[in-house]
Design brief:
Largest sheet: 9 strands, mixed
CATH superfamily of the largest domain: P-loop containing nucleotide triphosphate hydrolases
Strand order of the largest sheet: 3-4-5-2-6-1-7-8-9
Number of helices: 9
Order of helices and strands: EHEEEEHEHEHHEHEHEHEEEEH
Mean pLDDT: 85
CATH class of the largest domain: Alpha Beta
Structural class: alpha/beta
Number of domains: 2
CATH topology of the largest domain: Rossmann fold
Strand content: 25-35%
Length: 286
């Protein structure tokens, strides 16, 4: 059975996690999502989307579901895994004061789950105050440093002051999504190319590479370690002198396993304001 990918949504109180989750539940992405939240009361789900409410779970008409975490994350994860009809993707809302790395470690320790990234939201209007408060800043910076992707909320464009603050705090890939579809970036919904170009929303850069080139197996690790920071997701197959490998890259996390493949076939995705197709191609062919 395929492992269930898990994405963690993090961010300090008021950063916009609830808004992002509502967008994910309402978007027409074709995925069956299960979202584990801290409090139903904070998630204002459109009544038209609700099919059924039973105990700690709300079932939606689009196949998605929303349930509460309770006091035991492991129990909540096991409950999802034990369902006869598993979701396509699991989203966990971290509380505003929790450490997303601890949640990620719970995911990595479960053989039936796969890591889908930590997304941290930062409120542009209050970022300066938050990151200068001696009591709050250490925790906020921890959430930012842990993130594979930082989404800046409550602004149309990221100004230089906010960008400088996030860079100082250790943000890897800060971006502004505005009205762009969220699922394309957060989840693995961009397919491998099958004879035609991969397309995505203009807010995102997509890259694909197809060749019969064989990479030195010893150089693969260094190649991946040097990937552009704005390349948030990459997947596919690569031929090496040590055989073919299947690659899955999410932010800082890289997974490579032996497989059977007849060609190198890769697709990548990142925010268009952080990376270009030419930059990714130059990195890969160098």
């Amino acid at each position: 059975m395929n492992r269930l990918p898990v994405t963690i949504i993090s961010g300090y109180l008021g950063a916009g996690k609830t808004t992002l989750i509502n967008r994910l539940l309402a978007e027409d992405h074709g995925l069956k999502l299960t979202v584990i939240v801290n409090d139903f009361g904070a998630i204002n789900i459109d009544d038209a989307l609700i099919q059924e409410t039973a105990g700690s779970t709300i079932a939606l008409t689009n196949g998605c579901a929303c349930c509460t975490m309770g006091d035991d994350l492991s129990a909540a994860l096991r409950e999802v895994l034990n369902r006869a009809d598993r979701p396509d993707h699991l989203v966990i809302e971290a509380s505003g004061i929790s450490d997303p790395v601890a949640i990620a470690n719970s995911v990595l320790n479960e053989n039936e789950l796969s890591y889908g990234g930590i997304i941290t939201l930062v409120d542009a209007e209050n970022a300066g105050t938050l990151l200068s408060d001696p009591l709050i800043a250490p925790q906020a910076e921890q959430q930012i440093r842990a993130a594979d992707l930082v989404i800046v909320s409550k602004c149309d464009d990221m100004n230089e002051a906010v960008s400088a603050l996030l860079t100082k705090a250790g943000a890897r890939t800060p971006t502004v999504l505005n009205g762009s579809p969220v699922a394309e970036l957060l989840f693995d919904v961009v397919p491998l190319p099958k004879g035609r170009a991969v397309t995505a929303h203009p807010a995102y850069t997509t890259w694909q590479h197809r060749s019969n080139d064989v990479l030195d197996r010893r150089a693969l690790g260094d190649k991946l370690a040097g990937r552009p920071a704005g390349l948030y997701r990459m997947k596919g197959f690569v031929l090496t002198t040590g055989g073919a490998y299947e690659l899955h890259v999410v932010g800082r996390q890289v997974e490579a396993k032996r497989c059977e493949a007849e060609e190198t076939l890769l697709v990548g995705l990142g925010p268009a304001d952080r990376i270009s197709r030419e930059e990714v191609e130059a990195w890969w062919v160098a």
